[in-house]
Write a structure and sequence with these properties.
- By secondary structure, the chain is mostly helical.
- The chain has five helices and no strands.
- Helix 4 runs antiparallel to helix 5.
- The longest helix is centred in the N-terminal third of the chain and has 31 residues.
- The chain is elongated and about 70 Å long.
């Protein structure tokens, strides 16, 4: 009886440990996919006009939402959703920005994705 109780306690503690690690991984995963940025600093870095600032902010909000959806998807769909969101964002930004601004934006986006471990 004593062994049975100790075994049950050991299994429960292992289960709690795995659940805790899984929750921590999910939080880290969601944080990696959070693409929100300071729009004032992005505007300064890209030297955006006032009209561009509003449009870029709208496109970026959509991109952030799509990346958060990708972070909640299962493992098989996550990469496809992330790539779709990135490609859509780049297409819209290419339309809104001039060539120099677009090159700077792509560099910043790639750096952000690399730093968060999302660009594999």
């Amino acid at each position: 009886m004593k062994r049975l109780i100790l075994t049950v306690v050991a299994v429960l503690s292992l289960t709690a440990t795995f659940a805790k690690d899984e929750k921590a991984n999910n939080v880290n995963n969601a944080n990696a996919y959070d693409m929100s940025v300071n729009m004032n600093k992005l505007s300064d870095a890209l030297k955006l006009t006032i009209d561009q600032q509003e449009s870029v902010a709208d496109v970026h909000r959509t991109f952030c939402g799509e990346m958060l959806v990708a972070s909640q998807a299962n493992e098989e769909d996550r990469k496809a959703l992330m790539n779709k969101a990135i490609n859509k964002d780049l297409k819209y930004m290419h339309y809104l920005l001039n060539d120099k601004q677009y090159r700077t934006y792509v560099m910043l986006l790639n750096t952000t994705l690399n730093n968060r471990g999302l660009n594999n």
